[in-house]
Amino acid sequence: MKIVNIKGQIELLSGLHIGGGDDTMKIGGIDNGVIKDINTDKPYIPGSSLKGKMRSLLEWHIGVVGIGDGNPFSSKLLNDSIFNDDAKKNYAQNLLKLFGDKECAFGITRISVGDCSLSQETVDKELKLSEAKYENVIDRQTGTASNPRQTERVPAGVKFDFDIRVKVLDDDNGDELVSMVKQGLDLVANDYLGGSGSRGYGRVKFHIED
What we know:
Order of helices and strands: EHHEHEEEHE
Distance between the termini: 22 Å
Shape: globular
Strand order of the largest sheet: 2-5-1-6
Largest sheet: 4 strands, antiparallel
Mean pLDDT: 88
Strand content: 15-25%
Helix content: 25-40%
Number of domains: 1
Radius of gyration: 20 Å
């Protein structure tokens, strides 16, 4: 077995919101805060958020979402008629090797996505790490705004370091697994990360180190 590291930076092109699940109410404060490190009170991107988004988009890309009834793709669906050629079936098997299979047909999960902390560049520039964005619901008949709320975002320009590690077992095609990881990052860059993507949140760019 060998382990391949894919490292780099995530640059925010628009405000990013990944909720922190704060259960305290603050009068006049933010209604919907971002997740922050409990020790430093600085925002970060959970590895689970990036990994889950990559897997979801790759499943959409291969066209297996419709056969899973909303559940993550698993090996028990490999006999579906959509896998009518070897190349597509091999791609699906690599996806299960990479991200895991609840049926455990392909052994251990190959990918490990670490939490993404603020880059040293962002720290050195002393960039603002939080912004409050007001949002409203527009009454369709009167055209007036109602139900104002504040959502916290990490602003555009902030960068996070990411570190993805891929286990390549003896029978694996390492090039195919690494290529799938990079394709997953490309799909996220062309879609969004975090919440409220339809409103322009979460546009990102990945800078992969050589």
